[in-house]
Specification:
single chain, 198 residues, alpha+beta, Heat Shock Protein 90, 5-stranded mixed beta sheet, 54% helix
């Protein structure tokens, strides 16, 4: 994948997320109005509301992970609020161990790395994101991991023996996006832990 292809993928990601977030927001507002007037109540409303909230959180997360990103800063409060919303809809606990604002393009790399870790934890676990100086570490821990050895072994090079499936697109994008920013990916795995550094 060339830099041009990475940029095109980012533009497509931004466009899709931009076009979807508005109707999701409108549905959320409509549900709030229905709740205020007491028009609809019960488990059905909770199911719809929870599903819409989950969809909105994932779209906002994908907008950072897959969309175009510059060096404008993202603050801790904004990132942790987003990750808390995403965490509510999944099985993985997300721990953002940064206190300062960081450039959006670096958060993008962290989110792609988080998605790689998350893919190895179908039964849940913890993903921790840390930054020391200019170095990032994203680590995932779980009692039981499900590792695709081809993806993890070849993540640093971005050249995989098998075709990358849609659910694995983060593995293809992470090394290419990092390279476009002058960074290299390192990855290591054990039976209970996966670590990505850049």
């Amino acid at each position: 994948m060339s830099d041009t292809n990475v940029n095109l993928a980012e533009l497509i990601g931004s466009r899709i997320c931009h076009d979807l977030i508005s109707p999701i927001g409108a549905i959320t507002n409509g549900l709030e109005l229905l709740e205020m007037v007491g028009a609809v109540q019960g488990p059905e409303m909770e199911l719809i509301s929870g599903s819409v909230g989950s969809a909105g959180a994932r779209i906002r997360f994908f907008r950072v992970a897959f969309g175009s990103a510059g060096d404008q800063p993202l603050g801790r409060a904004e990132v942790t609020e987003l990750l808390n919303d995403v965490e509510r809809a999944g099985r993985v606990r997300l721990n953002w161990h940064l206190t300062e604002a960081v450039p959006r393009n670096q958060v993008k790399l962290a989110f792609l790395a988080m998605m790689c870790c998350e893919s190895a934890m179908p039964f849940g676990g913890d993903v921790t994101i840390e930054n020391t100086g200019d170095s990032w570490t994203v680590s995932g821990m779980a009692d039981k991991l499900n590792l695709d050895n081809d993806l993890w072994k070849n993540l640093p090079s971005g050249r995989f023996a098998n075709s990358v499936k849609p659910a694995q697109v983060q593995f293809a994008l992470l090394p290419e996006t990092a390279a476009s920013m002058g960074r290299r990916i390192a990855a290591e795995t054990t039976s209970t832990r996966v670590v990505i550094r850049f």
